[in-house]
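Box 4.2: Ligand-aware structure prediction
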Amino acid sequence: MLRGHSKCNIMSRFALSVKARCIAELKAAHKKLQGDIITLKKVMVNVTSTIFLCFNGYCGTSFAKYSYVCAGTNRQAKNFMPNNVKVKMVDSDQHVLRKCIEMVLGPAALNATKLLTTT
Ligand SMILES: [Zn+2]
């Protein structure tokens, strides 16, 4: 398991925004579930899908309702997105999005995260 500061190799603003959103989701969910990591892992599957939808411009659709930090109004999503990100992302953006989400909210990441034991 690789750990350290180079989790997201492409340190673009976009990647940082994705990470910020993921960490916000994780913190909010962890607080709400009061450290129940079993449930946390289950809900994060849906949260991950929701983050994909938000960053792809489908914020607030019926499929994007599992977020802990997004009100589904697109306004919240914009807070986490760089101004220059277009609704339609290119393939490389999708790759960054997928990779960054996996690094913060993937099952392996959830097992290893220090957030869950230090808060
Ligand atoms: Zn959203």
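In the box above, the bound molecule is zinc ion. The chain has one domain: 13-110.
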